[in-house]
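ARCHIVE CARD
Drawer: 12
Card no.: 0347
Subject: one protein chain, sequence and derived structure
Cross-reference: see card 0346
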Amino acid sequence: MVVKTDACFFSELRIYPGHGNRFARKDGKLVAFLNSKTKSLYMQKLKSTKLVWCQAWRRAHKKGISSQTTKRKARKTTKGLRSIAGLSLEDIKKRSTGKHRAFVANEQGARQIKERKKAAEKKKAVKKKVAAPKRGMCIYDQLFLLYVHEHVHWIELFCINRVLAIIYMYTM
């Protein structure tokens, strides 16, 4: 014969027929208690997780767990090659290594081209000469352009036969 039992709202213990009492909360929910002790503790607003004899405390402190459910470590999937219809495993391996070699060779070629371009740009920068001063520019403006744009280290002015000469030195 099967006996229908309820669970106590506070202690979560079984309430057998003819035992316990019910309480209607303000929100309209009917709450069943095992005895006056659990009802009194609920009315005092004590938490069932603080009381050692309640199921909530046992659950919070991992007591009485009969079957421990441990997380199983997932096996790492290993990638395996299989032969495809018309191709053997050896043929597939040969083709895959061939692609890899071609890719590496192509990458090295691209790197060499980039290095050549950089070297050519450096040569052009070294060969670059100072632009001739524009007509009608004041000598001070010319000096300023030299100093700012051409990275001149020092500038010296002197006059020879009424012609102003500019001597400058690049910083390299």
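Annotation on reverse: Residues 6-60 form a domain with the Ribosomal Protein L24e; Chain: T; fold (CATH 2.30.170.20). The mean pLDDT is 78.
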